[in-house]
Amino acid sequence: MQILTPHVYWAQRHGEIYLRVDLSDATDVDISLQEDNTLQFKAQGHGAKGDNQYEFSLEFLEQVKPEIHQKSTQRQVDIKIKKREERWWERLTLREKKPLFLAPDFDRWLDESDAEMELQAKEEKINRISVESRVRKDPYLGLKKGYLFMYNLVQFLGFSWIFVNMTVRLFILGQDSFYDTFHTTADMMYFCQMMAVLEVINPLLGLVKTGFFPAMIQVAGRNVILFVIFGSLEEMQNQAVVFFVFYLWSTIEIFRYPFYMLACIGTEWKLLTWLRYSLWIPLYPLGVVAEAVAVIQSLPIFDESRLFSIPLPSVLGRSLSFSYTLQLYLVLMFLGLFINFRHLYKQRQRRYRSRKRKVR
Ligand SMILES: CCCCCCCCCCCCC[C@@H](O)CC(=O)SCCNC(=O)CCNC(=O)[C@H](O)C(C)(C)COP(=O)(O)OP(=O)(O)OC[C@H]1O[C@@H](n2cnc3c(N)ncnc32)[C@H](O)[C@@H]1OP(=O)(O)O
């Protein structure tokens, strides 16, 4: 029996080589990759010269991976070989002169730029599928975003009302407006700060990426001032410090909530982002100082009224004044200031660092 060479057709992509061996009803197919990067093919089959043993070898232009995928059909033997490095070869074989039995496989043939476009289309398809599957993974995403948007809108309207009300009264009444801030705005502030408890719940439910502790410090800290110091002591309600505390709180919130609203709809205004991540730098320490002044002013009132005082056994005295708890709270306030100042600083760094990276 003669040993003959079959017709072999080839094509490539950036990562693979495709060979089509024109041999029908092939049996005893033996394909191996030699150490010198040469492919050896042997098979019994029906080729151009009838039933025979057919063989060929090809020394590749560049290194290929050792695993070879092969599929024999009635009409042909298909071989797929992976390139070791993903790049376009200028020809198939190391020898410049093309073997006579080798020809391009025009059914699969693509030139380099077409192959690149095919690769790009594949990558885009994979990306699209992964984005779609991520979106599909969370069927409540729309609902969550809708809830957050509404929450932020309500808070924005509430704090804007407080801010505008206080500003207008300041212009009309001057310093006199300081002393009845509580009576004109407290109901709205109660509403907003009760709603703000959701800001502690939201991260627990995984609705926002905020840390639980910074949110808890923020909400608990403000609510102590609002409900315990101002809310429970009438004597505190007409103090000028109420004006400063409420004004500092609402100034940041009229920028923070619209920033979140835009984030919910995937939009950003650079100036608003800058204000959200910069205004806290002067406002937060000023806010803590104003709150500390309110706490200090309330100490003698709690001592006198014995409100919230803890009853003690008669040997230890009448009761322990709530002012001691508040003195401890004053220390906690500055600890809270440190924790949240650091948190906000990191949030600012993270936002502007990632922004810079995107621009580059
Ligand atoms: C009885 C026990 C008491 C214990 C407490 C004792 C200590 C108390 C001390 C308290 C001192 C408080 C002083 C304070 O009251 C003074 C003032 O407030 S003065 C005014 C100035 N204040 C501020 O500037 C603070 C404003 N507040 C905040 O910034 C936040 O409340 C804070 C939790 C501090 C930080 O916010 P957050 O961690 O959420 O940062 P980000 O805004 O960057 O958000 C992170 C990502 O989550 C997304 N997000 C967050 N919330 C929402 C939302 N509602 N809707 C939609 N998306 C939201 C946000 O977009 C970010 O996502 P991404 O990273 O993808 O952009």
Commentary on this structure:
With 360 residues, the chain is of the alpha+beta class. It folds into 2 domains: 3-109, Immunoglobulin-like, CATH 2.60.40.790; 138-344, no CATH class. The chain has 10 helices and 11 strands. The protein has helices spanning 112-137, 141-173, 181-195, 198-204, 212-230, 234-237, 240-264, 270-276, 280-305, 322-359, and strands at residues 3-4, 8-12, 16-21, 24-33, 38-47, 50-59, 64-72, 77-83, 102-104, 310-311, 319-320. The strands form 3 sheets. The chain has a 5-stranded mixed sheet, with no helix packed on it. It has a 4-stranded mixed sheet with strand order 1-6-5-4, with no helix packed on it. Helix 3 runs antiparallel to helix 5 (212-230). The radius of gyration is 38 Å and the shape is rod-shaped. The structure holds ligand L7CU2Q4V. Residues 148, 152, 208-211, 214-215, 217-218, 220-222, 224, 248-249, 252, 256, 260, 263-264, 280, 283-284, 287-288, 291, 332-333, 336-337, 340, 344, 347 line the site of ligand L7CU2Q4V. Ligand L7CU2Q4V is lined by residues 148, 152, 208-211, 214-215, 217-218, 220-222, 224, 248-249, 252, 256, 260, 263-264, 280, 283-284, 287-288, 291, 332-333, 336-337, 340, 344, 347. It comes from Fundulus heteroclitus. Pathway: Lipid metabolism; fatty acid biosynthesis. Its EC number is 4.2.1.134. Belongs to the very long-chain fatty acids dehydratase HACD family. It catalyses: a very-long-chain (3R)-3-hydroxyacyl-CoA = a very-long-chain (2E)-enoyl-CoA + H2O; (3R)-hydroxyhexadecanoyl-CoA = (2E)-hexadecenoyl-CoA + H2O.
